[in-house]
UniProtKB/TrEMBL annotation:
Keyword annotations from UniProtKB, A to Z: Heme, Iron, Metal-binding, Monooxygenase, Oxidoreductase
Pfam families: p450
Coiled-coil positions: none
PANTHER family assigned: CYTOCHROME P450 26 (PTHR24286), ENT-KAURENOIC ACID OXIDASE 2 (PTHR24286:SF356)
MF GO annotations: heme binding; iron ion binding; monooxygenase activity; oxidoreductase activity, acting on paired donors, with incorporation or reduction of molecular oxygen
Family: Belongs to the cytochrome P450 family.
GO biological process: pollen tube development
Named cofactor requirement(s): heme
Binding site for heme: C423
Origin species: Selaginella moellendorffii (Spikemoss)
Protein's recorded name: Kaurenoic acid oxidase
Source domain of life: Eukaryota
Amino acid sequence: MILGVAVVAVTALLTFSSFFNKWYYEPVLKPGQPPLPPGSLGWPVFGNMAAFLRAFKSGRPDTFMAHYVAKYNRVGFYKAFLFWQPTVLAATPEACKFVLSKDSFETGWPESAVELMGRNSFAGLTGESHFKLRKLTEPAVNSPKALEQYVPLIVNNIKACLARWSAQDKIVLLTEMRRFTFLTVLHILYGKDSSLDVDETFSLYYIVNQGIRALPINFPGTAYNKALKARRKLIKLIQDVINQRRASGKPQETNILSLLMDQLDDKGEALEDAQIIDVLNMYMNAGHDSTAHVIMWLMIFLKRNPDVLEKVKTEQDGIAKCISEGEMLNLSDIKRMRYLSSVVDETLRLANISPMVFRRALVDVEFNGFTIPKGWHAEAWLRQVHMDPHVHPDPEKFDPERWEKYGASPFTFMPFGMGNRTCPGNELAKLQIFIVVHYFVTGYRWTALNPNSKVSYLPHPRPRDFYSVRVSKLL
Ligand code: HEM
């Protein structure tokens, strides 16, 4: 009897739970409105997070979207409940184009991530205020004139790194690359003599980045709680730099901090310090870790594909020969790296450092026979497009030549996103990658110490040993 009641109660609870999200979140559509996309909002609170985590933690991340495609066909949009929000997953070039280029969508980072990056950062800003701050800062990061200035900084930095690494028994390449890219961005944001302590800020940003991808549980000891504390420390450190700059007068060189401090709004008023700090924080957060991961993957792919490495080396040796004694690589040399450019694109496609980007529907929108309700999140699944055999034949294969065969069209290749939030550091990222690979392959060789290290996909794809290698100088 008791058992019978228990079974009925559990069944009733399960049935109620399985319908809760549908009942609570799915809107009643107006007559004539197309239906919601196929899919299910899953279980209360966690929605479809278990399926997402299972796929990414099992080492087969593409099985997550493959389930939707197998069940509902390649219809472009699926409904789900992810990161605590009712969400539409955009999974074809056309669906991503719709989400990333329409004004009816705005940025939709999870609240916990906005809290860590800052409400005044690009993650929290929308419309005109986002546009203005991008327009002000992007040229100083990404324009050809800015890039030209950064070449010596990057070249000297990587040359010093390579000399140091080759004197060590082993290095953890990802950790070293993070530090390398961190130094580049620190310089661009604050100029060459910022008073910020590199070790301290580097560790604080690491903690913040961990928190951005962690469960948003603010309880002592959780990754999220540690990240909030690290953010508070960073704010204080950056505020000190701003105060010092104010006290010491105008800096001689232009950097992002000086641009932001000199900026006046429409009423002739300066930006608030809290705004300046958030913008700097986001550039730093977004600006070093991704590039470091891509460089690491490129070195892994080269090692796994000796024929590709050989071709890259031949091209780079040819370029190195044309550089006179005492001179260094410049932007015109980099433009001649045609084959390496395909290798970089193929790495960006296959590594999928940013698997998806977040948006939110500002109004009810209709596309391809489906309604995306106002307020729902929309995730453009860049990874799915990059790994879709309809878009990129034999997608698992590392094949730089594919780019010579069919080239890239805008919404089939989106490692830096697309639309008004396309990465404002994409050219800087590529510049660093080209320079690192040039000096690595022309002067050094490297050996993977755990070539079979398993790959983790969360928070970013990377081997579990972060790619431990021995670097040696070529004789
Ligand atoms: C290979 C390296 C990189 C990758 C794969 C990458 C990828 C991305 C992607 C996919 C977005 C779009 C997010 C969205 O649509 O919501 C983005 C945005 C952003 N990236 Fe990058 N990024 C890289 C390097 C950099 C660098 C070097 C910087 C600057 C120093 C940077 C700064 C930013 C910023 C500030 C945003 C926010 C833009 C906005 O919301 O308007 N990124 N990045």
